Amino acid sequence: MAATCTVTATITDPSGASLLGNALVRFRLRNYTGFVPVVSGTSVLCETQIDAYPNPAGAISQILTCNTAISPINTFYTVEFWNQGRIVTSANYYFNANTSLNTASNINPAPAPAGPSSIIFENNGVLNSSQTLLNLTSTTVTIQDLGNGRIDLEASSGTLNSSGFTGFAGPGLDSTVYLTGGWDQAIISNVPDTILVYGFTLAYSIRITQAVITLINPGEPLGDYVGVFGLFDYLGNLLTQFSADADAVASNIPRVITLSTPVTIGPGFYYQAQAQHKPNGSGINVNTAFALGNATLSTPMVLTVNALQPVVGVATNTLNGGTTMPSTLGTITPYTASDVIGQIALPLWYS
């Protein structure tokens, strides 16, 4: 966004003759009442009026600071046309690009002054080109509203597009056809209602609408074992989730579950959260789930991935009512060498 622009005009009398001598065009900055007009990070406008005088052809050319570069917002210029020591006509204009007054439209009515708590739109600390509308749209980057006026823009490295399976397994495994070792059973969690988390990085954008999970039940009645899975963002905020009963009838049969909250996630870091609930029993919960063969993490691996931030660990918050993930994970306690390491369950998240 340019900080300055050039305004031009040709001034004449009714006969078309160029005005010379005691003629001028006066530009006056307006609508900054109660504030000192400032060009953000550049200068203070201690003079808000400037006169432009015509050349022998009656043409004027004047460089002005663009209104979008000035704080407070909603400033404009009053342009006064003077001849022979008297003001003849005047009008109000926004100047945000090179403008010819010969064709420009004036603003009417004049905008109201900005209040002390007005919303100010900036790009990297500089006023943006519109102070009345901010509508961020993009097909090439992921736009995320982080709250408190913070907008995060992340470059997208592509979107999955396939007529077959489009998604990933568990914490971000998207090349399932090449995985070796076969599929096996995994302990979702050793302690009922305790949430285990596995961090992963996604390199593309994808819309998640469904999930597939196979739960295995050791002959217990319906409702005795419930598996609960969720996807959380890097701050630990819930994005989507699902739960499934591990009943004996549907044991070892893949189940397709339509998510009640579809979600589009872009490139970035996420957590898969997994937990299980055993309402009619006590002690260690041994419910199992579809998993990568021998998907038990080794202690050296856990210590390595947790070196910089918690990637594998236990969430402070627990399941709500045994079937629902909390809205946030709370503090994540990293696994240490003394912990019993859980196993990675691999529901298929897909669109």
pLDDT averaged over residues: 79
- How far apart the termini lie comes to 39 Å
Based on DSSP secondary structure assignment, what is the total number of beta strands? 28
Number of domains: 2
Determine the CATH topology of the largest domain. Answer: Jelly Rolls
Radius of gyration: 32 Å
* The CATH C-level class name of the largest domain: Mainly Beta
CATH architecture term of the largest domain? Sandwich
Provide an overview of this structure:
The structure is a single chain. With 351 residues, the chain is an all-beta fold. It folds into two domains: 4-127, Immunoglobulin-like, CATH 2.60.40; 167-350, Jelly Rolls, CATH 2.60.120. Helix content is 2%, strand content 43%. The protein is built from one helix and 28 strands. The protein has a six-stranded antiparallel beta sheet, with no helix packed on it. A four-stranded antiparallel beta sheet has the order 5-2-8-9, with no helix packed on it. A four-stranded antiparallel beta sheet has the order 15-28-18-22, with no helix packed on it. The protein is rod-shaped, with a radius of gyration of 32 Å. Residues 177-181 and 282-287 have low confidence and may be disordered.
